[in-house]
Automatic annotation (TrEMBL):
Transmembrane regions: none
Matching SUPFAM superfamilies: Clavaminate synthase-like (SSF51197)
One of the record's GO molecular function terms: 2-oxoglutarate-dependent dioxygenase activity
Name of this chain's protein: JmjC domain-containing protein
PANTHER family the record matches: ARGININE DEMETHYLASE AND LYSYL-HYDROXYLASE JMJD, CUPIN-LIKE DOMAIN-CONTAINING PROTEIN
Amino acid sequence: MQHVEKLDSISYDQFIENYLKPGIPVVFKNASAAWKSNQQFNPDFFRANFGNHKTTYKGKEYSMNEILDITEKSTVDKPAPYPILFEIPLQLPELLPMIDPLHMNYAFPNWFRNKVMPYGKYGNSIHLFIGGPGNQYSLHKDMYHTNAWVTQLYGEKKFVVFPRDQEELLYPSNAGFISPINITKPDYEKYPRYREATPLSIVLKPGETIFIPNGIWHTTVAASHNISLIFDQLNGYNFKAWKQDMYDYAKRRGTMAAIAKYSLAQTLGSLCKLGEMTKAF
């Protein structure tokens, strides 16, 4: 496998030209140092501050303490349930001031931070993921063509990404956003074209942040007990694709529903663009 580039530092303009516009993933070694808190976001921190906070996975409720216990004991042979996650603004809001500025001086403008954008809809999310050895995410590209930013808070996680021109080699299904291929044990007889794919891999270490551009297929494999913070980004660079997804997903309910959702997307985008111009968010 080839590797994703890791950067000690880069200007915002260089990031836009060299990575955002051409759609190339990249890892920032120290971007999260921009956060106001220099707290070590390890299991002890989450036990002490959020131990009794709860979330659900497949209909079952888990506390933060329970999740940390389960994932700490996870093995390749007996993996913990995954993905168990927290919606940070709704379930762990006290964490938000500690990770301000969320954009780390790179992930802006982000129209999802505009108050007109409903949280939890249309790709707008800020998640805390907790996992352990044996945990692997499905191979996918993010719905609504959002840009993804993942900061490793604790432990290590391997990311595998694919260049945009290789989508046809990944056998997209489920509206074109999920691949049935298990990258650790690919079935070449069933998916022969996957032999031609050239995945790029990188191990994300604590404090590092990976930028995954919209439309990029990717997956993760846990290298250890780990905690990650993930948020999505929308702005003028991916708005057109986001707006088209809004239409396409609604089209399953009929043309009128699709037109209505497209109109909503256009309105939200116009308001966000105005907010960007006036620095309202």
